[in-house]
Amino acid sequence: MAVWAGAALVTAHAASGGEPGLAVSGRVSSDMRTVRVHLQGTPYTGISRQDGTFTIHNVPPGVYTLEVIDSLSVWPQLEVDVGVRQPGRVQALSARKETLVYPLQLEPLGAANYFEKREGFNLRAMLMNPMVLTMGFSFFSIFLMPQLMKNIDPEALKEMQDAQKQLLGGASAAPPAALEGKSAAPKRGAVST
Fold it and tell me: Where is the composition biased (Low complexity) (predicted)?
């Protein structure tokens, strides 16, 4: 549902009756929906009526960010100067710091989108998955590495084995034939022939 924001008139008048701040008033066309108009960083909030008008009472002088809180549309934020540059008046500035003329025209930036569009099939992303990379490395080390070792020159293979022996230490790298030559002590009750 397209939401169209009509004219929004922001005015300020000196509060009467002992109120210390100014009142920020305006009009927001929101298709008969109730929206909130809020000054960021403050407790000051106005709720729009059925005709779209709102008023935020008793706002002390300062510079605030005015935002329209609406679940169906995204609205631009405005900087509102309440009586700082011109005492007793409210000025509204756009995001580009342009002074906005009255009546202020507010239009939503677009409909609020809370969901991301699902991506289609992507072969590269699938192949870069950590699980696929791990499986590929395992395949390489189990099946292809022995094939590569068969094609190595016998002298280079002997040099690699000698280097491994030096890294692992002399005793633990003893060839299995040397261990087979030693006889184990006979077990109890075993008859030697």
Answer: 168-179
